[in-house]
Prior knowledge:
Strand content: 25-35%
Bound molecules: copper (II) ion
CATH superfamily of the largest domain: Cupredoxins -  blue copper proteins
Number of strands: 9
Distance between the termini: 81 Å
Amino acid sequence: MPFHKINPALAARERTMHLDETTDHYGRVLHLLNNMMWDDPATEKPKLDSIEIWHLVNHFDFPHPIHLHLVHFEIMGRKVFTEDDFDENGNYKFDLDSLTPPLDYERGRKDVVRAEPGQVTSIIMHFKEHYGDYVWHCHILEHEDNDMMRPLVVVKYKRLVNISLLYFTTLYWVVFVFRMDGRIKVLQGQK
Ligand SMILES: [Cu+2]
């Protein structure tokens, strides 16, 4: 069934997500997203009604099914990566034209994508329906519990900003009017 495709030119930001492993203090293997634990503060905080492109960089030699909660995404495509594909900060240098397109059964809206080993899998989504605290994670149980799961916080800024603006503008005018009133009375008293 055809559906409206998200325009990559409208993306507010791109995020490079490294899927990699380390070891804990007992020497046991930990599978991590961006080298962070579940308990670390949220770093993925898209704004409500914004479009983002995420690049899932799989450094393992096996695939991970990556799942995002409460948002549907489209798979833009994949690319085998080398170290030349990243800048000095580890951010993926995205080139839309270099992608291998998704498979036929991957062309609809998705909530899980197979991040292939040695490849960057690029996905795009519009955070427009839900806001609040969610998660994104690998869907292999042993991975997500140790510790391949991270918070995903969709932030509703707009209304908060509008309410704050209204509050401070009103406060400013109230103070301004009272001060002017005070000055007028002082001037009247001088006459
Ligand atoms: Cu996994």
